[in-house]
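TA notes, week 10

Several of you asked for a full example with nothing omitted. So below is the full record: structure tokens for the whole chain, then the designed sequence directly under it. When grading your own attempts, check the secondary structure regions first.
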């Protein structure tokens, strides 16, 4: 079953006749009005605003003339004005009713059409019996004001939905309309839709980046805040990936387009947000089932109420009609239909603002149940690349001298360790030796070697030292072992059989990781780490982060087995990984959370995507998911409670207290209450926009029943 993306009503795809296709997605609608609102929101907004104003402009005079100004033929005038309201602003309800019949289903328009039509034609019948009467009791004001109130509620709902979608719209507005493309040696401005993969595009300071690409020339700083939520501009240079829709700040560069159109990161982000907003959480299955039976049940209840007051109650035809209208109108399930999508819309949009994407409503719902989070170490808890933490000097040359030789040799290597050494030397102001490296050779699995000014040097691990016959004294061995016990990787520099120095490296833990683990613990969530690294490295990371349960030396397939083990223990497990190497374990977990940056993240396996590389966003994603689900439960509670309490009142439960005369105003009260219930649900959902991602505290623990 599908759900109308505008009103949230339940729609059977097999019988639905109203459908729109956007990209490769199909949307089904319960009424023509909803389809028009989806296809052309601005045009629909203007039309709805005009018809709502018309409803009030005629509805108020109808009310005044019906009760306060009486003259011969006044009710003919009132009937004409009420007809204009009934069949112009009220025509949307007849179209919706007709569409429901064609779809062999029912919708909220069915109830409104039945109620207002009953009041209108009953009143018209009374006028036709006595056209010139001056004291007729008619209910044209009831039908007209019901239409005005419901249209007003719909207009307010549309306005609040528009506000709730603000984050998504901002993302869409980021896409530049044109690009400066290099064609045959000339810069040509073309619409961004015409950019092709492989085009070279010049981006100047202050311009938006048109499409996803790779920088091939120049450098700059790029503001990626609207895509990743990261406020600090990112430095980019040749080889760096840039995302379409982000803002270039200070420099000029040329990018090579890699992804264009609907496959771009920005388009994919918007699609993911839309999917999350329009998804159906499993809690809504109950609402869907109720909605599918609700309308016929209400119609039967309204008819039963009417028959009761007419036959056993002997209240007369007028009361019977008003009882029917009151039950029909007060039971309109608008609030029930939008309870879940309204909260999902705001929650997904709020997540997008923080660089957190929920790929579906199930991900939002599952986040409340998670009580164990499994973290991959490399690239998740740590930076994913080695950094030099210190130099162990075993020779007579100073640190600058050995680092200069080290950097000179590594200058010819693409290995991450080499890059780390060069960066470290550069940070200390130590330039790589300017002498040419001769006879350079990379030895896979060992290291590298070469000659500088005729002197042979080598760089590598213990196996490399053995390969060249280098001897390791007791003090050197002790120093290196000490670093290795602390989880460091040690790379040595030597000349022939002599070890000159060693650098210790580690994959640094990302800032805030220890705080994250602590706060997860406060929420009642157990943190587990899995890594393919050796035991000493894993133990050191676990010690620094505060993780009590960890597994080392784990292969990719082993991570999945660990998740299965936790699930057998009764845990609801979230897996946090890079979304590529960890794909099997992300899929096996109850909730997969892919962490990373750039365009690849959009293709990750996880149900939640963290656009930044900050593991702290795991906490934000879980908190926002729980807060959103809490809003869904509140909305559904109020929607069910509203109908449960008010339907009996509309059927006459309070007549013994207030008398049968309450039916003179009950239909209008019903319309006000119905409109109020819908706007209350949307307004309650919009309160999610007050969610503060920076707030790290969490007062409660995960429910044990979750």
């Amino acid at each position: 079953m599908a759900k109308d993306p505008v009103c949230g009503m339940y729609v059977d795809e097999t019988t639905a006749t109203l459908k729109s296709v956007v990209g490769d997605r199909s949307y089904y609608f319960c009424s023509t009005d909803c389809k028009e609102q989806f296809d052309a929101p601005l045009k629909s907004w203007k039309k709805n605003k005009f018809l709502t104003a018309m409803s009030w402009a005629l509805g108020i005079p109808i009310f005044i003339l019906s009760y306060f100004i009486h003259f011969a033929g006044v009710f003919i005038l009132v009937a004409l004005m009420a007809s204009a309201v009934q069949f112009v602003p009220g025509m949307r309800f007849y179209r919706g009713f007709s569409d429901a019949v064609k779809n062999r289903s029912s919708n909220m328009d069915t109830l409104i059409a039945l109620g207002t039509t009953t009041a209108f034609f009953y009143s018209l019948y009374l006028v036709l019996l006595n056209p010139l009467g001056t004291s007729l009791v008619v209910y044209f004001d009831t039908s007209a004001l019901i239409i005005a109130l419901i249209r007003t509620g719909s207009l307010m709902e549309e306005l609040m939905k528009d506000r709730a979608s603000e984050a998504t719209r901002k993302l869409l507005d980021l896409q530049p309309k044109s690009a400066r493309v290099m064609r045959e040696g000339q810069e040509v401005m073309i619409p961004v839709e015409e950019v092709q993969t492989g085009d070279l595009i010049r981006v100047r300071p202050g311009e938006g980046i048109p499409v996803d690409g790779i920088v091939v020339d120049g450098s700059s700083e790029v503001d990626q805040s609207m895509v990743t939520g990261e406020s600090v501009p990112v430095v980019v240079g040749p080889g760096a990936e840039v995302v379409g829709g982000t803002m270039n700040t200070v420099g000029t560069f040329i990018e090579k387009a890699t992804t264009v159109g609907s496959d771009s990161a920005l388009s994919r982000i918007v699609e993911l947000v839309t999917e999350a907003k329009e998804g159906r959480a499993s809690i809504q299955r109950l609402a869907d089932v109720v909605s599918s039976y609700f309308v016929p049940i209400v119609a039967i209840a309204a008819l039963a109420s009417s028959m009761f007051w007419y036959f056993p109650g002997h209240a007369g035809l007028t009361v019977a009609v008003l009882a029917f209208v009151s039950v029909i109108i007060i039971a309109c399930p608008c609030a029930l239909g939008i309870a879940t999508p309204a909260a999902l819309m705001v929650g997904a949009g709020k997540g997008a603002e923080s660089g957190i994407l929920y790929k579906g409503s199930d991900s939002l719902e599952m986040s409340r149940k998670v009580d164990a989070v499994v973290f991959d170490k490399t690239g998740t808890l740590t930076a994913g690349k080695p950094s030099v933490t210190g130099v162990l000097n075993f020779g007579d040359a100073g640190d600058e001298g050995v680092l200069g030789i080290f950097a000179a040799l590594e200058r010819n290597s693409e290995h991450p360790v080499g890059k780390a050494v060069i960066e470290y030397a550069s940070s200390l102001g130590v330039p790589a030796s300017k002498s040419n490296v001769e006879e350079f050779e990379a030895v896979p699995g060992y290291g590298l070697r070469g000659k500088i000014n005729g002197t042979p040097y080598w760089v590598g691990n213990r196996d490399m030292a053995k390969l060249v016959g280098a001897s390791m004294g007791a003090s050197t061995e002790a120093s290196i072992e000490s670093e290795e016990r602390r989880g460091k990787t040690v790379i040595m520099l030597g000349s022939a059989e002599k070890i000159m120095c060693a650098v210790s490296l580690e994959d640094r833990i990302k800032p805030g990781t220890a705080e994250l683990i602590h706060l997860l613990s406060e929420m009642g969530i157990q943190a587990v780490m899995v890594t393919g690294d050796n035991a000493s490295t894993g133990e050191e990371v676990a010690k620094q982060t505060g993780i009590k349960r960890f597994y080392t030396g784990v292969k990719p397939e082993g991570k999945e087995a660990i998740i299965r083990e936790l699930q057998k223990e009764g845990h609801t497990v979230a897996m946090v990984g890079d979304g590529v190497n960890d794909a099997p374990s992300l899929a096996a977990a109850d909730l997969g959370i892919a962490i990373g940056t750039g365009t690849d993240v959009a293709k990750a396996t996880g149900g939640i995507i963290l656009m930044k590389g900050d593991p702290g966003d795991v906490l934000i994603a879980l908190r926002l998911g729980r807060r959103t689900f809490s809003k869904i439960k509140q909305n559904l509670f109020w929607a069910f409670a509203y109908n449960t309490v008010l339907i009996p009142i509309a059927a006459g439960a309070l007549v013994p207290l207030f008398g049968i005369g309450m039916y003179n105003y009950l239909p209008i009260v019903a319309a006000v209450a119905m409109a109020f219930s819908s706007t209350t649900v949307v307004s309650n959902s919009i309160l999610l926009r007050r969610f503060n991602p920076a707030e790290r505290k969490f007062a409660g623990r995960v429910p044990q029943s979750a």
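The chain has four domains: 1-164, 176-272, 347-382+510-625, 385-508. Use that as a sanity check on your answer.
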